[in-house]
UniProtKB/TrEMBL annotation, chains A, B:
Molecular function terms from GO: DNA binding; DNA-binding transcription factor activity
Family per similarity comment: Belongs to the LysR transcriptional regulatory family.
Keyword presence, Transcription regulation: yes
Name this protein carries in UniProt: LysR family transcriptional regulator (Chromosome initiation inhibitor)
SUPFAM superfamilies with a match to the protein in the record: Periplasmic binding protein-like II, Winged helix' DNA-binding domain
Alphabetic keyword roster: DNA-binding, Transcription, Transcription regulation
PROSITE patterns: HTH_LYSR
Transcription in keyword set: yes
PANTHER family in alphabetical order: HTH-TYPE TRANSCRIPTIONAL REGULATOR ARGP, TRANSCRIPTIONAL REGULATOR
Source organism (scientific name): Nitrospirillum amazonense
Domain HTH lysR-type: residue ranges: 2-58
Amino acid sequence: MIDYPAARAVALVVQTGSFEKAAAALNVTPSAVSQRVKQLEERLGAVLVERGIPCTATEKGEWLCRHMDHVSLLERELTAHLPGLVDPTAPVPRVTLAIAANADSLGTWFLAAAAAFTQGCDHLLNIVIDDQDHTADWLRRGRVLAAVTSLEKPIQGCRVTALGALRYHATASPDFMARHFPGGVTADALAQAPALTFNQKDRLQHDWIRRTLGRDIVLPTHWLPSTQGFVDGALAGMGWGMNPAQLVRGHLEAGRLVELVPGAILDVPLFWQVSRLAADQLADLSRRVVATAKRELVPPP
Amino acid sequence: MIDYPAARAVALVVQTGSFEKAAAALNVTPSAVSQRVKQLEERLGAVLVERGIPCTATEKGEWLCRHMDHVSLLERELTAHLPGLVDPTAPVPRVTLAIAANADSLGTWFLAAAAAFTQGCDHLLNIVIDDQDHTADWLRRGRVLAAVTSLEKPIQGCRVTALGALRYHATASPDFMARHFPGGVTADALAQAPALTFNQKDRLQHDWIRRTLGRDIVLPTHWLPSTQGFVDGALAGMGWGMNPAQLVRGHLEAGRLVELVPGAILDVPLFWQVSRLAADQLADLSRRVVATAKRELVPPP
């Protein structure tokens, strides 16, 4: 059996960033918290908390924290049926639900659904951002309970719902187009014109080129891991990049941005995968995610 | 002596994400690239490239890639003085400069300076985002050549310039205020009302509370690692958080957001630190960063 008081101490140190604050939340002394954490670390033979300002979880510590989040969620459900289980005078710990979304979904439609969900309950959300091709890994490793992902195939132990597709336009400023594509968007020009790439996981620019020109091109690129930064960078003439339709519609209409190849869109189908363990507790979130996606995304290609 | 052709192959595999694309860029066969990378890995006794889709750098591989970026930058300067050194018919490799900035600077003022710099030269930028208290670490470890940081003390081997301060307002929606702070922004109410926290490194909400109420409070919080997400989350009534003045000015004027405590601002002083090794090559970027900061930031407190 896991030493739950010690595990809760680890989770609180990580959540609050310090042993002192965790102690205040538990209403014990900092040295009591320190002792609980240390004992658990000695039993495991592994460091769980990286001492620093703030204190953070090691990789093993992260696993324990996620476990504690999931256990809290299950406890909540249980105590609704067996209220006698808990001391009615003790404060009920708030549940933090870890979910993963891609940055472009968060920057366009996802947050509206998440915010609406938080207003209907007192759960807290830990929103993890990763590439749509990689959020499924977070779910697979049990680090999150649900994810917006490009993966259609259900992850083991998960339910999947199709959300529609996020539409992208390859965009740049008119000035950038004049400077780098005076003779049109050719393979030679693309091999010279700086692109914007979110990070190493971002294949959207390459996917668009392959679909539009039918071949691969090694792109010179700026690295800019920010959804809004992509739009701002394109507006400022820094590079061209794939931007979600929602964020560039106004700029395209006003002529501040133009499409590299008019009408050459890229639609990225997205799916909502939820751990079966948490599907009931996340039913309201799932409903809101699906409804918002239906309004904001396009039908899948 | 480092095996530079092999090191360059590693850098290109990481940059393009695949052995095939690196081979195309080097005009050799993929198996030649694979052999160069493997030989270097064997000599080092360490994996440099994580084979996958895309191929990415391991931590040791990252070090090598940064080294290659820095060497390219120095080569550029040298060949300006000794043009005979390089084969005039070979394409000149583009230089990628790694620089670090905090997300809120990127989301408000920094990108304008970066974009202006890229238009005056053909260098590419690799913009790394981290908390303003942690960007200095990237510089210290030689992973970037320059950084926007809250650290005033010069890092070894770096020049430092004061930029001014980024002003923050503690903001929430009027609806959120009515729901969570009907009796005012008290310590008890703050211990119940969900805050927004960027990530574990983000101490701004705590700093603001300490300065405003003179004490520490353990905050229930949503985790939301996105500058624009913070504004959107506040607007949607998800939580309260510290938002840069530039991003909420319009919302405050229109009453879509309100300050938790009117006039209780938090100014975060920022500094530009540049590696002396690259100070000359980055002189134009430094000039633009300082000029933009002067326009957009407030005088330090």
